[in-house]
Design goal:
SpoA-like_sf; four-stranded antiparallel beta sheet; about 240 residues; Flagellar motor switch protein FliM; cilium; single chain; FliN-like_C; 12 strands; 6 helices; flagellum; Chemotaxis protein chec; six-stranded antiparallel beta sheet; Surface presentation of antigens (SPOA); alpha+beta
Length: about 240
């Protein structure tokens, strides 16, 4: 996995910056991600744009970033507030540039202003263990960047890089959501519901299947040897 293997580079850089060997980083999760309008606070995000197209967004939870920044800047007194300073965000940007360089050479990236992302991209969280503190670095790749990297790595003479990235995408675990039933009731009835009330529901003959907000296809739920199974409809389109 391209991101997982590169965490060693981040660990090495953090140890050098903080002059401590009591810090390490490792990949926590990589998954498909559907962007929504209000999921990121633009003033707290470090954003980089690839010269061919697409953006990568990096942000670190405030407690972790403050701990890293206080160590980096050799602060004498621990802060009592979690409000981030411009110095904190500069360190986050420095870390973000390292993460971006895992995916493409540093000269292919430029710091840019935050813009809302749309569509489905990738999300990765990196676990950071620093002395007695544990925190997370969050990384999001927009849809255009995933397309750009896939195309460019396909043209790379180093086939191993392309296959590593391709394998990372194909091995990403996704959470399928299946809507089995639905019920429309007046709000007054909903507010009047009590514990142990019985609410009749309507089972759907054709159930929608989705990842996040993205609808994929419809299917039918049936019993198979005492276990509920999902049968895909004949009109399901191929993902290839």
């Amino acid at each position: 996995n391209l991101i997982s293997n590169s965490c060693n580079v981040l660990t090495y850089e953090l140890q050098n910056w903080l002059k401590s060997h009591n810090i390490k980083s490792n990949i926590n999760i990589v998954s498909l991600h559907t962007f929504t309008a209000n999921e990121m606070e633009k003033s707290l995000i470090s954003t980089f744009q690839h010269q061919t197209g697409g953006r990568i967004f990096t942000y670190i939870d405030s407690t972790t970033l403050i701990r890293l920044a206080d160590s980096f800047y050799a602060a004498k007194v621990a802060r009592s507030s979690n409000e981030l300073s411009s110095s904190d965000l500069r360190l986050q940007e420095k870390i973000g540039s390292i993460i971006a360089s895992w995916l493409a050479p540093a000269d292919m990236w430029a710091r840019c202003d935050f813009e809302l992302a749309q569509g489905t991209g990738l999300y990765a969280s990196i676990h950071v263990d620093f002395e007695d503190h544990q925190g997370m670095i969050h990384v999001k790749l927009d849809e255009l960047l995933v397309e750009t990297l896939t195309q460019e790595l396909d043209l790379q003479p180093q086939e191993s890089m392309y296959h590593s990235f391709k394998q990372s995408l194909e091995s990403t675990r996704v959470n399928l959501k299946v809507l089995l039933c639905q019920k429309d009731i007046p709000l007054s009835e909903l507010l009047a519901l009590q514990t142990n009330d019985i609410l009749p529901v309507e089972l759907l003959s054709s159930v929608p299947v989705s990842i996040g907000q993205q609808h994929l296809f419809n299917g039918t739920v049936a019993d198979n040897d005492g276990q509920l199974v999902l049968i895909l409809n004949h009109d399901k389109e191929s993902f290839q």
